[in-house]
């Protein structure tokens, strides 16, 4: 790290070797081959020493005072008075009158650099030095003095889109080469006046926007859109103006002032729509048209990219040899802008070349490194935005800022990109160009309705200041993988929503006799009547039972969790009408599991959302709200205990009944149904069968989106009480619903007239429900973040008045709103443990969805390792009484996308995750290298395991064939001997 920064001054001086044009083309191939999903994981690390942390603004966005103290009009003052404009930047954030407030904001952030722009018409009101405005110059001197007082270095932009209107009117603005010399004259004044205090200069901000959207699409000032060739003539002049300013500084000011000069180039990132080489070339061309348009002349050879020249031919102006030499090399560092600027939202689809835009800052940084031979890169604008009504809690802005900074860190650490600084955009809410005030990009909230436009730090400001203080994301002990093992009696399981059921007997269990019609079609024809069945039914008659048990045994798990189908076992709802064949099938399954030392964990009823899994008669008579259904469920539970309980030692009455869309009256009845079923087991079966019973609650974790104040935690606690405490408190707690739940719903009913009525427990029901558990079981898959604001109506929960979001640095799974957040499991387990101290806990289902065609399911491998490791931390470090972990799921056939067994037609395929899970089970966790082996006594596997059982039909067939052959041989010998005797007599 130290060596790298010793050479920084040389790099800043521009002494990097010449670029290899087109070298960036391999970027897409490189990143497609990085290990997934490990490469997407968050990087805990810090930035290099003396990394520059900055924040920025643009003059027209924040200064205001549009015609005060001698300031001339800019093209934006005119443009915003056009017929399509609604609001203007006349006041902006009023930074012109608020230097002390802006300085305080910078001090709060703790940045080392502040990027701001000079307003050309505030310094020269009509664009020329003859119109010098002393008060405007004094404003900038005062700002720079304020920065010096707090030891913040200025990064000064000469031109950020606000051309003096007089130059547009007289000369046509940047379309006229005369403005090149006028810009040089303006730059000369600025270097002379402010240069002794400025070490970083930006000549022109985002020339692509100026040329393409100012003089092409007309989206921004000056709003010209009639000449398709004009943007390229404007770009030509912008490059000449920049080069003129750079050479001026280099010749007259560099030696005395020691500063650096560059041009701020903005770019999108783009992904190939297909994996073919021509698509990558199209992406390369897209970047060349936006970024390379200006970067290649500056950093490569003084000329435009070949793709532009090929596509535009005569429309693109040409540089003379002398001009190419003059422009080439006129950048002391690569000033890169990235974010929701117009260069990202290309608007004109033609510049995408049929490919897809993306937010990949890390890949863009690497492309710049490859394409321009690793120049020092200063990210001079980066960030996101919130809606115009966002106030202090700007979650989207904060988490995108976190993402872009993390990608910058990865680019430095993993990709060896020479990034020297990062600029968050922006310091203040202000006028956001063509979006006006519809969005907010500031780290500080500006109340536009107050006379002094008061500034208040947003959560993004607090985040950024803490990040700067720590110089990145230092790894904490809780972020590191844990080493250790689980107890010897830890339950390793696999879960499935159901099992495959096929009650058709195998060919060896069929009592019928057949003839072979050799003269016809060759089909077998049953002979009637069939003789009586001579042997009793065996579990081997159900081939699917044996196959599934064999597959379970191969997983080396100690437990298997699956659900029964109530509506199939008792279609009418009356136990007298039970499907005996299906009950026998389930009995075979659990008994065969037990034979191979796999403990069956059986769910009586699995909630399936809107799809009813009740017997039809129950559904027709009111579903769970009917007392008849509650009693029928109790009868059904008793039947299952009777018929299967000898082999089942863990019972789940209800699996995931706590659906947040469920009516509270239905939830109340489900609690009663669970309690009745639990008491039946406790009174009638526990002593003889020795099992345990409880229910499984769905418990995805909910994290506060902001954790800077105590009140930030309240929304997440509210959600957890409504999601989990709803069912947990009556059973595991005091026998009633959470107080938070009752108070909140009462308040909502009084104020908003909503029909949120939480039932009341009678004393009888309270006694019935309370304590009906032997363990606490959860299913856990993902984590979301929550806060009490409104940002996206689609993920806003009106009943709870909370906004659900995801951290955009999380690894996203294919399943919508299901990011991979391993530490969420540890927090969920600790929540349960803190509420219900010492209760035995099972993670009854934990898994991730992945493409069923991916047998090398690397996302699931990553998921299992990290989630189980977090479970180990909860057990060994936090003292959680964790008794077992069940991976979800067994097979894609039953749980598409979640299985560790895949399928190609009838062939069963073991995915990579299966071997990985077996390895974790084999080691009983994550023992460290050289750690003594854990001594655990394992129960021996019965000799009649599935590997033998699954071969019984074959063995039977071979035995039959052997017997037939033996009889045939005996008959042949018998008749041969008899024939010889007859022959000898004759």
DSSP strand tally: 34
The percentage of residues in β strands lies in 15-25%
Low-confidence stretches: 1-17, 941-955
Radius of gyration: 37 Å
Structural class comes to alpha/beta
Largest sheet: 8 strands, parallel, barrel
- The strand line-up of the biggest sheet is 1-2-3-4-5-7-9-11
Compute the average pLDDT.
90
- The portion of residues assigned to helices is 40-55%
**C-alpha geometry:** elongated
- Alpha-carbon distance between the two ends: 110 Å
Total helices: the number is 34
How would you describe this protein?
With 986 residues, the chain is α/β, with parallel strands linked by helices. The strands form ten sheets. It has an eight-stranded parallel β-barrel, surrounded by six helices. The protein has an eight-stranded parallel barrel with strand order 16-19-20-21-22-24-30-31, surrounded by six helices. A hairpin with a 6-residue loop joins β28 (811-812) and β29. α17 packs parallel to α18 (395-413) and α20 packs parallel to α22 (580-595). The longest helix has 34 residues, at 952-985. The radius of gyration is 37 Å and the shape is elongated. The N and C termini lie far apart (110 Å).
Task: Give a short synopsis of this structure.
The protein contains 34 helices and 34 strands.
What key phrases describe this protein's structure?
about 15% strand; about 40% helix; alpha/beta; disordered N terminus; about 1000 residues
Write the layout of secondary structure elements.
Blueprint: H1 2-6, H2 8-12, H3 27-32, E1 52-56, H4 59-62, H5 75-79, H6 99-109, E2 113-117, H7 120-123, H8 134-149, E3 153-159, H9 165-171, H10 178-194, E4 200-205, H11 207-217, H12 230-252, H13 254-257, E5 260-266, E6 269-271, H14 277-301, H15 306-312, H16 321-327, E7 334-338, E8 356-358, H17 361-371, E9 377-382, E10 386-387, H18 395-413, E11 419-425, E12 439-440, E13 444-446, E14 455-457, H19 459-470, E15 484-485, E16 491-495, E17 513-516, E18 524-527, H20 543-554, E19 559-563, H21 566-569, H22 580-595, E20 599-606, H23 616-620, H24 627-644, E21 650-655, H25 664-684, H26 686-689, E22 692-698, E23 701-704, H27 714-732, H28 739-752, H29 763-769, E24 776-779, E25 783-787, E26 796-797, E27 802-805, E28 811-812, E29 819-820, H30 823-835, E30 841-846, H31 858-876, E31 882-888, E32 901-904, E33 907-910, H32 912-923, E34 925-926, H33 946-949, H34 952-985
Parallel strand pairs: 1-2, 1-11, 2-3, 3-4, 4-5, 5-7, 7-9, 9-11, 16-19, 16-31, 19-20, 20-21, 21-22, 22-24, 23-25, 24-30, 30-31
Antiparallel strand pairs: 6-8, 10-12, 13-14, 15-34, 17-18, 25-27, 26-27, 28-29, 32-33
């Amino acid at each position: 790290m130290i060596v790298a920064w010793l050479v920084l001054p040389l790099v800043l001086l521009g002494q990097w070797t010449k670029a290899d044009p087109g070298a960036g083309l391999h970027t897409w191939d490189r990143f497609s081959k990085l290990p997934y999903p490990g490469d997407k994981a968050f990087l805990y690390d810090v930035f290099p020493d003396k990394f520059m942390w900055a924040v920025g603004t643009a003059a027209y966005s924040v200064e205001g005072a549009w015609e005060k103290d001698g300031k001339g009009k800019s093209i934006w003052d005119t443009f915003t008075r056009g017929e399509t404009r609604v609001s203007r930047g006349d006041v902006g954030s009023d930074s012109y009158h608020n230097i002390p407030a802006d300085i305080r904001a910078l001090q709060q952030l703790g940045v080392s650099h502040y990027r701001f722009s000079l307003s050309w018409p505030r310094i020269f009101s009509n664009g020329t030095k003859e119109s010098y405005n002393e008060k405007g110059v004094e404003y900038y001197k005062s700002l720079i003095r304020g920065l010096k007082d707090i030891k913040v270095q200025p990064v000064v932009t000469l031109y950020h889109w606000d051309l003096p209107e007089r130059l547009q009117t007289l000369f046509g603005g940047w379309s006229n080469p005369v403005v090149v010399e006028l810009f040089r004259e303006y730059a000369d004044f600025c270097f002379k006046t402010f240069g002794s205090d400025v070490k970083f200069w930006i000549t022109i901000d985002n020339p692509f926007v100026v040329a393409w959207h100012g003089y092409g699409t007309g989206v921004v000032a000056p709003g010209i859109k009639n000449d398709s060739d004009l943007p390229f003539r404007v770009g030509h002049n912008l490059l000449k103006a920049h080069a003129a300013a750079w050479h001026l500084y280099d010749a007259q000011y560099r030696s005395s002032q020691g500063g650096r000069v560059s041009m701020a180039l903005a770019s999108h990132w783009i992904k190939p729509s297909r994996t073919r080489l021509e698509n990558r070339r199209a992406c390369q061309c897209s970047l060349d048209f936006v970024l390379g348009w200006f970067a290649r002349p500056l950093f490569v050879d003084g000329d435009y990219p070949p793709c532009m020249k090929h596509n535009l031919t005569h429309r693109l102006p040409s540089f003379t040899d002398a001009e190419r030499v003059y422009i080439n090399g006129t950048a002391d560092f690569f000033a890169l802008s990235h974010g929701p600027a117009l260069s990202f939202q290309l608007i004109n689809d033609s510049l995408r070349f049929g490919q897809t835009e993306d937010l990949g800052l890390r890949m863009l940084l690497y492309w710049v490194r490859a394409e321009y031979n690793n120049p020092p890169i200063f990210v001079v604008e980066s960030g996101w935005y919130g809606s115009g009504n966002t106030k202090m809690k700007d979650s989207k802005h904060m988490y995108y800022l976190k993402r872009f900074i993390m990608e910058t860190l990865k680019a430095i650490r993993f990709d060896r990109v020479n990034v020297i600084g990062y600029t968050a955009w922006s310091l203040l809410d202000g006028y956001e160009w063509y979006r006006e005030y519809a969005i907010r990009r500031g780290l500080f909230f500006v109340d536009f309705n107050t006379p002094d436009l008061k500034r208040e730090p947003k959560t993004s400001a607090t985040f950024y200041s803490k990040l700067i203080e720590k110089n990145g994301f230092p790894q904490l002990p809780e972020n590191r993988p844990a080493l250790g093992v689980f107890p010897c009696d830890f339950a390793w399981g696999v879960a499935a929503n159901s099992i495959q059921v096929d009650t058709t007997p195998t060919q060896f269990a069929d009592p019928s006799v057949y003839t072979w019609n050799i003269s016809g079609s060759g089909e077998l024809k049953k002979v009637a009547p069939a003789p009586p069945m001579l042997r009793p039914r065996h579990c081997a008659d159900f081939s699917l039972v044996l196959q599934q048990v064999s597959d379970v045994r191969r997983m080396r798990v100690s437990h298997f969790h699956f659900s029964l189908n109530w509506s199939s076992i008792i279609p009418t709802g009356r136990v007298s009408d039970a499907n005996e064949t299906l009950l026998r099938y389930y009995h075979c399954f659990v008994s065969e599991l037990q034979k191979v030392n796999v403990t069956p964990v059986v769910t009586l009823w699995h909630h399936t959302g809107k799809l009813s899994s009740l017997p039809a008669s129950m559904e027709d008579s009111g579903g769970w709200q009917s007392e008849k259904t509650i009693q029928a469920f109790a009868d059904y539970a008793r039947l299952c205990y009777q018929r299967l309980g000898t082999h089942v030692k863990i019972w789940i009455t209800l699996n995931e009944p706590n659906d947040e869309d469920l009516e509270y009256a239905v939830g109340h009845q489900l609690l009663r149904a669970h309690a009745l079923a639990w008491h039946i087991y406790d009174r009638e079966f526990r002593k003889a069968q020795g099992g345990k019973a409880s229910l499984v609650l769905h418990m995805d974790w909910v994290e506060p989106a902001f954790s800077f104040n105590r009140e930030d935690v309240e929304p997440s606690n509210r959600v957890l009480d409504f999601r989990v405490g709803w069912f947990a408190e009556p059973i595991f707690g005091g026998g009633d619903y959470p107080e938070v739940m009752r108070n909140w719903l009462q308040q909502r009913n009084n104020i908003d007239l909503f029909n949120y009525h939480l039932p009341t427990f009678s004393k009888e029901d309270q006694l019935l429900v309370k304590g009906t558990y032997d363990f606490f079981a959860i299913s856990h898959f993902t984590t979301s973040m929550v806060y009490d604001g409104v940002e996206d109506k689609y993920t806003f929960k009106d009943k709870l008045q909370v906004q659900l979001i995801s951290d955009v640095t999380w690894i996203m799974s294919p399943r919508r709103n299901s990011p991979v957040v391993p530490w969420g499991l540890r927090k969920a387990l600790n929540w349960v443990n803190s509420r219900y101290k010492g209760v035995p806990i099972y993670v009854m289902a934990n898994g991730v969805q992945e493409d069923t065609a991916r047998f090398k399911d690397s996302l699931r491998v990553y998921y299992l390792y990290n989630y189980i490791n977090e479970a180990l931390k909860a057990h060994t470090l936090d003292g959680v009484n964790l008794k077992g972990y069940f991976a979800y799921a067994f097979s894609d056939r039953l749980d598409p996308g979640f299985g560790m067994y895949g399928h190609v037609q009838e062939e069963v395929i073991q995915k990579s995750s299966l071997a990985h899970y077996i390895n974790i089970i084999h080691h009983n966790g994550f023992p460290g290298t050289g750690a003594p082996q854990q001594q655990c006594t394992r129960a021996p596997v019965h000799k009649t395991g599935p590997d033998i059982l699954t071969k019984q039909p074959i063995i039977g067939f071979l035995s039959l064939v052997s017997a037939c052959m033996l009889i045939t041989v005996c008959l042949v010998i018998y008749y041969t001997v008899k024939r010889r005797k007859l022959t000898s007599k004759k």
